[in-house]
Amino acid sequence: MANVEQLANLDLPVCLLPDFESFPEANFSAAFRSTPAAYQIHEPQILVNGDRFLSLPFHIQQAAIAHEIAHAICKRTPLQLVDPDWGIRLSEEIVADFLVCSWGLLDELTEERSRSYGARYCEILRMWPRQADFVRQMTVWYQQKLSGQARPVVDHGGSGSMHRSFL
Length: 167
Ligand SMILES: [Zn+2]
Description:
By secondary structure, the protein is of the alpha+beta class. The chain has one domain (5-154). The protein has eight helices and four strands; from the N terminus they run βααββααααααβ. A four-stranded mixed sheet has the order 1-3-2-4. A hairpin with a 4-residue loop joins strand 2 (37-40) and strand 3. It is globular and about 45 Å long. The protein starts with 13 loop residues before the first strand and ends with a strand. Mean pLDDT is 88; it is low at 155-161. Bound molecules: zinc ion (ZN). Residues 67, 71, 93, 96, 164-166 line the site of zinc ion.
């Protein structure tokens, strides 16, 4: 990823914590407690979730860290992926995954996403080089998710202001 232009001059600390139990989000979100990593917005840094992260295979660790870096990029230079017909903007979680794919980590990401979001989500991830198709199909997938027809994208953010996590 060293050659990725979007990452130029990005200075983002990574902090390894023993666990995520001390965060308010941990009280109401099991997904947050078990996510391997999270991006902290108010004081930008990547938080790494101790043994949970370290227990994962290296390639999934790479995807997790890349996803959090993508959140930082989304905050720095908002990348809006908008369906032109419907005018619906993709959520930052999906935009972050799009960036991870564009940085060459599609395979690393899809192994985890096939478990958490399902096969269809991964099929659409593979469309990333065709951005218009990607945006349209993700928009359809996301709307189906909202109506309960697809597996949910877990909203780890709680208040939506503090952390964005990998799983
Ligand atoms: Zn995320």
